[in-house]
Amino acid sequence: MVFQLLKKLLFIFAVLLIISCEDEYSAQTPITRYKIGDDNSWSKKNIDDSNWSTKRGNPGDSIFWVRMNVVLSKDPKPYEPQGVLIYSFGAHEVYWDDVLIGTNGIPGQEYTTNKIGEVDRSFIIPDSLSKKGNHLLALRASQYYHQDHDRGYGIVVSSYKNLIQVPLILTSFTYVLAGAFFLTAIYFFILFFTNQKSLSVLLFSFCSFLFFLLIIIEYIKFYIPIHYSNFFVRLEIIGILTFLISFLIPLYFSIQFSFPKRKILIGLYFVLLLFIYFLNRGSYDYTTKLLVISMWVVSAIIVANAVLRKEANTIAVFVTLLVNVLFYNFLEYDMFLILSFTLLLLCMFYILALQLKKQREAYAYSLVQTTRLKHELLKKKIQPHFLMNTLTSLIDWVEESPSMGIRFIEALAEEFNILNQIEDKKLIPISQEIQLCKSFLNIMKYRKEITYSWHQEGIDQTCKIPPAVFHTLIENGITHCMPNSSNEIDFKLTQRSTSKSITYILQTIAIIRHPDKIIKDGTGNKYVKARLTESYGEKWSFDSKKDNNGWTNIITIHQ
Question: At what angle do helices 262-279 and 231-256 cross, to 10 degrees?
Answer without folding.
Answer: 170
